[in-house]
Write a structure and sequence with these properties.
Elements: H1 2-12, E1 17-21, E2 24-27, H2 28-45, E3 52-56, H3 60-71, E4 76-80, H4 85-94, E5 100-101, H5 107-114, E6 132-137, E7 147-151, H6 152-166, H7 184-193
Helix pairs in contact: 1-2, 2-3, 2-5, 6-7
C-alpha cells in the first residue's frame, strides 16, 4: 500500500530533495521529521479520530499534515485559502472536526510542532483499506458544496494505475492544482512513491 511506500521513501531517501516550494527545498529527512511530529500531535489531540481540516495553500505543513493524518488513520479535508470565506465556512460546518490546521491550530503553531528536533519514529500506520482517506468538496456551483469521500483503497488503486502510465521513475513532478482540487492527488502522491 502507498503509505508503506511513502514511509520507506522518506527513510531511505533521507538526504534527497522531496519538495521545492517557492524556491525553498526540503529533504525527505525534513519531511519525515515534520510528519512524525504532526502524527504524534494528532494522536494526542484527536483521540476520537475525527476528520482534520487542513487550511492553507501549498505550504510544507499542508503536505506533511496530509501524510501525518493518513499515517494516524485520520481523514483529512483540504481547504485552500484562496476560497471565498463563505465556501470555507460551508465546508467547516459540514465536517465534524476538532482540529482545523491553519485555523484553530494556527500556521505558526503547526510550524512550531513540525520543528521539534526530538521526534519519535512512526511505528504504526493506522489507516485501513476501507477507511476514508480524504474528503474533497465539489465546487458548489449548483448549491452547497458536497464532500466526496475517497477511501485508502481507492487512492491506492489510482496511484498504482498512474504509475503504469508514467512508466518509470522521475525526479520531478510538477504540482499546479490546488490541494482542494482532486487532480492534485496524482501530483502529491506520485511525487512520494515514484522515486529513483
Amino acid at each position: 500500500m502507498i503509505l508503506d511506500d511513502i514511509l520507506k521513501v522518506m527513510k531511505q531517501k533521507s538526504e534527497s530533495k522531496a519538495y521545492t516550494i517557492n524556491e525553498k527545498s526540503y529533504t525527505y529527512k525534513e519531511l519525515y521529521k515534520y510528519v512524525c511530529n504532526i502524527y504524534k500531535f494528532l494522536l494526542n489531540e484527536n483521540k476520537e479520530k475525527k476528520p482534520v481540516i487542513v487550511y492553507g495553500h501549498k505550504q510544507i505543513y499542508i503536505k506533511a499534515t496530509f501524510i501525518a493524518c493518513s499515517m494516524a488513520g485520520m481523514t483529512y479535508v483540504p481547504v485552500d485559502e484562496s476560497m471565498p470565506e463563505e465556501r470555507v465556512n460551508q465546508i467547516i460546518n459540514q465536517i465534524d472536526s476538532k482540529i482545523i490546521i491553519g485555523k484553530n491550530v494556527s500556521k505558526e503553531k503547526i510550524n512550531e510542532i513540525m520543528q521539534n528536533p526530538n521526534y519519535e519514529e512512526i511505528r504504526k500506520i493506522y489507516m485501513k483499506e476501507d477507511d476514508i482517506y480524504y474528503i474533497i468538496f465539489t465546487s458548489g456551483s449548483t448549491g452547497v458544496p458536497k464532500g466526496v469521500k475517497v477511501t485508502y483503497s481507492n487512492l491506492n488503486s489510482c496511484i498504482n494505475w498512474l504509475k503504469t502510465i508514467i512508466k518509470g521513475n522521475t525526479d520531478v513532478i510538477l504540482n499546479q492544482a490546488n490541494f482542494s482540487f482532486d487532480l492534485s492527488v496524482a501530483d502529491l502522491y506520485l511525487s512520494l512513491v515514484n522515486r529513483k
